[in-house]
Amino acid sequence: MDRLRIAESSGGSSAATALSSDNINGLVLALSSSLFIGASFIIKKKGLKRAGASGIRAGVGGYSYLYEPLWWVGMITMIVGEVANFAAYAFAPAILVTPLGALSIIVSAVLAHIILREKLHVFGILGCVLCVVGSTTIVLHAPQERDIESVKEVWNLATEPAFLLYASLVIAVVLVLVFHFVPLYGHTHILVYISICSLMGSLSVMSVKALGIALKLTFSGMNQLIYPQTWLFALVVSTCIITQMNYLNKALDTFNTAVVSPIYYVMFTSLTILASIIMFKDWDRQNPSQIVTEMCGFVTILSGTFLLHKTKDLGDNLSSGIAGYTGIPTSHSSRNSKRPEDDGFISEDIPLRRPDSFRTPV
To answer: 180: number of CA atoms within 13 Å, CB side?
Structure first.
């Protein structure tokens, strides 16, 4: 009798951890999204280099890349990736889809090493491995997608007290940040802009998931476009994404990209997972061991992401060391100037502060 119970328990556990067809579809779409988005960065960079060779570079205010076909190929590739990412949320939980975005960093790093001949440090390779291990862990222990038959069900989830409290707190914090902290600290503290992007991003992903589910049901024969909730979710998506992109551009324009990217990924992914847990109650369908394993996978991805970005600094320090050894001057102007192989962005010496607030020692 005890053996039978053990067998039943084991069978139930394996069934719970098995991937459903919706999770598999979401996984394939998320992986495809990472592949397209990661490749798009390299294609656009090649297009920017080609355009810069015959016109004014983007880094100094030029728009010659708009006439470069290769840049448009990269832009179309990115749009395809974003569409695949949008569709992935309609099939799989956000706790599965969102962390897989880190794989686009791996694609970019590997393609940059192969196509652009950029050096991939040994720690960068380790970072790639950590991202793959963490992603695999999350995929194998992700919760099953909730069965939803109408956009009204999603609306009911979004209007429950717990998520309404979360959404209200997010909006309140964003308003305080925008009207009080941005004018005072926006240009000197990196977390101000990134906090706005991440908080609004968590709401946008929940709305994107709701809109994706509505479109999936519509395409399957159950028209959801007749419900006002569908259009309200679409309005929330538009508002959140516009706000998110506005302050993300401000962050990228003010601070070092190598610092903005990992901090934004950590905050955005963490808040999105929290919002998904509150709204869709992902963890209610899992046991504690699965939840802990998912968190370990998430931390592993974060470690790999930080390591990948940190290797950029190692590469810069190595280049500076070689330049100093060979007697090549490394003045402020030469270090911040545009290199021929760059994609139009100017590097910064101090990542967490506005560049013009510092002076280079003589």
So the answer is: 6
Q: Is the pLDDT of residue 240 over 90?
A: yes
pLDDT value for 61: 57
The angle, 0 to 180 degrees and rounded to 10, between the axes of the packed helices 122-141 and 288-325 is 170
**Distances from the Cα of 217 to the Cα of 222, 291, 338, angstroms:** 5, 29, 49
What contacts 24+ positions apart, CB below 8 Å, involve 110-115? 111/38, 111/39, 111/42, 112/42, 112/45, 115/42, 115/46
Which residue in the block uniquely carries the two structure tokens 């309404």? 164
If one counts every other C-beta atom within 10 angstroms of the C-beta of residue 61, the result is: 8
* pLDDT over 60 (residue 64): yes
Place of tokens 């355009």: 51
Alpha carbon distance 215, 209 (integer Å):
10
Judged against a pLDDT cut of 90, whether residue 146 lies above it is answered with no
Coil vs helix vs strand at 58: helix
Task: Give one DSSP letter per residue of 13-47, joined into a string.
Answer: HHHHHSPPHHHHHHHHHHHHHHHHHHHHHHHHHHH
Whether pLDDT at 276 is above 70: yes
Q: Which residues contact 247 (CB under 8 A, 6 or more apart)?
A: 193, 194, 196, 197, 200
Per-residue pLDDT at 174? 96
Rounded to an integer, what distance in angstroms lies between the CA atom of residue 103 and that of residue 304? Answer: 10
Q: Are 65 and 51 in contact (CB under 8 A)?
A: yes
Alpha helices in the chain (DSSP H): 2-17, 21-54, 69-91, 94-97, 103-114, 122-141, 151-158, 161-176, 182-185, 190-219, 228-254, 257-280, 288-325, 332-336
Instruction: Say whether pLDDT at 16 is over 50.
Output: no
At 151, the pLDDT band (50, 70, 90 cuts) reads very high
Residue 133 contacts residue 300 (beta carbons within 8 Å): yes
What pTM value is reported for the model? 0.71
